[in-house]
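The following block was generated as part of the benchmark described in Methods. Ligand: zinc ion.
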Amino acid sequence: MRSLVVAVVAALLVAAQSPSPTSSVSSISGAPPPNGTATAPTNGSGPPTFAVTLASTNPTAIPLASIVATLPVTATTIPLPTSETAGAVPTGVAGAPPLPNILGINPKDYPPLDHPPPTDSPEVQQWIAQLSNFEFPNISVTQTGGCPNNTDAAKDPTRCWWTCGQCFQSTDIVTCPDKLTWGSSFDDGPAPYTPNLLNYLNQQNLKTTFFVVGSRVISRPDYLRTQYMSGHQIAVHTWSHFPLTTLTNEQIIAEFGWSKKVIKDVLGVQPIYMRPPFGDIDDRVRAISAAMGLTPVIWTSGKASNNVSFDTGDFNIDAGTISSSGVLKNFTNILRNATVINSGFIVLEHDLFQQSVELATGYVLPAALAMNLSIQPIVQCQHMPLSNAYLETNDNSTNPLPTGVGGTPLATKPPSSTGGSSSSGSGGSGSNTKGSNGDVKTLSIGILSSMLAALIGSLAVCC
Ligand SMILES: [Zn+2]
């Protein structure tokens, strides 16, 4: 198996260095199974060879040369594979309630998009009051700009700040237990090209985890319902996608609270797993997250992977800071390292932009399928059923919620500092909004500047 993996990595690396595959198909919809010509012949001497070409892996892949920054649109969005109605019950989530009626949902009843929600609303005040018994660690809010703008905090091991050193705690999920098992996830949607990804996942009978942004959920609730009803795991990725360590305790409560609320309003269940935007988490954020019943999930990094960050970098194609070939090189490096570490792994990918969806469906996932990797939602790669992903259906005997859910007991101390650390930061995700066919939203300059600063900070080497 390992030799096959290495061979596929080598084939992908060659492909990543090529300007484009030989196929020229204009749509990623209707892709046939990708495993047609992948073979592993042996000649009796030396390692087996594994002939995988991009064209054979997914003949309908968009040519790499067409997956570029600030696209003219090269692929059309496709309709949702299914349309979900109120009262329907998901077949894959044992004990799940029926889908609620969302006809009455009004975005005006939720916070403005892409901003940290105000903390003086009745809802947020109620959530703050519910957490009044908790005592959160006295860790200072960080400044935007990441490690270079927070030199003291970056050197402070007691806060276990992932952004500056990839420190994580035992309460964070950063891997899957079983070697060569991929806990799959896509962040920052639902977005215009999410249906294209869903279509491919359905064709291949693959399930993933979607870390969704509340601002996107209220914009596309029907997308979220199809993701959920298709058997994918839904998890929290905050309301506005700001770096959480830059926010006050009350703002973090608002970010988590509104995200949980909008997902429950749309699905009838609320997730108990969350991913901090940019991976930006410290022990203060962890404590608030735990108090609100949320378990952090980060991609494989730091001590868990010999300081290799399992980040494809796909989010940055749209901004032009990495090429599609560069993302495939990152992916081959991830696969190479996946064969080395003793656990399974979690990779950072996104469904926000057209380019990242095209890479995932045309190249990354087909290659992983050809390698016979076990691709699972993150909750299931932890050996748990999908029902353990939601508060309403979680089996507390097998998956106890984080400390103190329900108002007791006091969280008087941060988790013990047992996490790993490394010498470099890592690129993370960012938040942006981009539609298609004229449906383009832009963030305010202030928000974009904040996120850019955070991203630059997270990319910088520190500590
Ligand atoms: Zn993100």
